[in-house]
Amino acid sequence: MTVTDYFLPGSLSEALDLLGAHGPSLMVMAGGTVAMPLVNDGISLPGKVMGLRHAGLDDLREEGGGLYIGATVTLTRLLRQRAVPMLSEAARSTASWSVRNMATVGGNLFTPPPGGDVAVALLALDASVTLAGPAGTRVVPLGAFHTGFMTNVLQDGELLTGLRVPAVAGDTAYLKFGRKAANTPSVVTVAVRVARRGDTVTDARIALGAAGPHPLRAGAAERALVGSTLGPEVIEAVAAVAAEESQPFSDGVASEWYRRRMVRLFVTRALERIRQGGEGR
Amino acid sequence: MASVIVNFELCGRDVEVLVQPMATLQSVLRNQLGHTATKEGCRQGGCGSCTVLVDGEPMLSCLLPVEDVAGRRVTTLEGITPIDGLDPIQEAFLESNGFQCGYCTPGMVMVTRALLDHDPQPGREAIVEAISGNLCRCTGYQPIIDAIEKAADRLSGSGEQTGER
């Protein structure tokens, strides 16, 4: 352990002051389920670390038909909320009980793939993130937050303080495929949301996890879906587009080849589930 | 590297420790407080052998800086083991052969304690989900699941196998 200073700010302003005073060398940690293993193994050798557990960023409240989720709300609390069932399901599919008692929703956005399952559901729900910095706060759509593998739009001195999930229309489906029934890294994770007027799809989100350098939306597949009628042939075509535009990778869990095929299969299954009745929002 | 003083409640007693910055709760429990039931396994949050309860909820002490639990209530296996004899959960593990080498057992027992606090009569599926973060390389898990079912039956007073919830 190389840590000389471990800060536990008691408020957001204190956290921002520390970040300003120590600069980018200050390692920021929320639940510790990603950062601590690296520190324990000496892969990460930080000198100064700031823990956010006591920074008061753990509000979870229903708001305007949607949800406000503080950055350090644990996955267990997300699992237990009832307002947005898909987020509960996404939390349940992530890691183990003890990890969920520590891991945070904000931290999930910083978890490298094949992690980040909650972020996939949040993408399908049009979530936005609030970033606070010395110059004030700004709101960024989650779809514009990630810029690459473990990179994002956060500027020096900025902290992610929370997420907003708006009231959105449509039916949702969330499917995570792993090699075990529980506590398993993702082969592929799919979250979809489809709004329809009559039989016609008016709006669609198809979000993929473990299928790129970060959780991403299959934009071409979404466009192919809007305006059509959700039937078996459309679903098959849309899933093929999603597989084509996905950017899967090979790791110890699955190969790129296999993941691409599973994107196709699980987008098909998710859309089929919606066609056959959805699961509510 | 200035050490810091941390106070928390450990198994019903107030403790005060002088620790290096960001020392893990696990290392402090074992090396400074003599609570060696809490095992050091992977130190990655992947094996569950260091599971303790913080304010009654299972957490991985290898991932928890001890400063984070200042003022909170930490329970280890030592805290649920009576002075004489065993806790009913431990009895059930013993009777069901719920361990062989025993390395995972403290973590398994702590998760069981928390599970039965939340859900006194969990079905087999809920038990499997609850212990999915606790690896056992000896038993193949079935005797552990049997032990947890047995403990649930006894503690809830039903004395019979319960069905799925």
Report what the structure shows.
The complex is a heterodimer of chains A (281) and B (165). Chain A has 281 residues and is an alpha+beta fold. Chain A has 3 domains: 47 residues, Uridine Diphospho-n-acetylenolpyruvylglucosamine Reductase, domain 2 (2-Layer Sandwich); 106 residues, Uridine Diphospho-n-acetylenolpyruvylglucosamine Reductase, domain 3 (2-Layer Sandwich), CATH 3.30.465.10; 105 residues, Enolase-like, domain 1, CATH 3.30.390. Helices cover 31% and strands 27% of the residues of chain A. Chain A contains 10 helices and 14 strands. A 5-stranded antiparallel β-sheet of chain A has the order 4-5-10-6-7. In chain A, helix 4 packs antiparallel against helix 7. The longest helix of chain A has 20 residues. Chain A is globular, with a radius of gyration of 19 Å. Chain A starts with a strand and ends in a 6-residue tail after the last helix. With 165 residues, chain B is of the alpha+beta class. Chain B has 2 domains: 75 residues, Ubiquitin-like (UB roll) (Roll); 69 residues, DNA polymerase, domain 1 (Orthogonal Bundle), CATH 1.10.150. Chain B has a 5-stranded mixed β-sheet. The C terminus of chain B is likely disordered. Classes of the chains: A alpha+beta (281), B alpha+beta (165).
Which characteristics define this entry?
heterodimer, A: 281 residues, alpha+beta, Uridine Diphospho-n-acetylenolpyruvylglucosamine Reductase, domain 2, Uridine Diphospho-n-acetylenolpyruvylglucosamine Reductase, domain 3, Enolase-like, domain 1, 3 domains, 5-stranded antiparallel beta sheet, 4-stranded antiparallel beta sheet, 27% strand, B: 165 residues, Ubiquitin-like (UB roll), DNA polymerase, domain 1, 2 domains, 33% helix, disordered C terminus
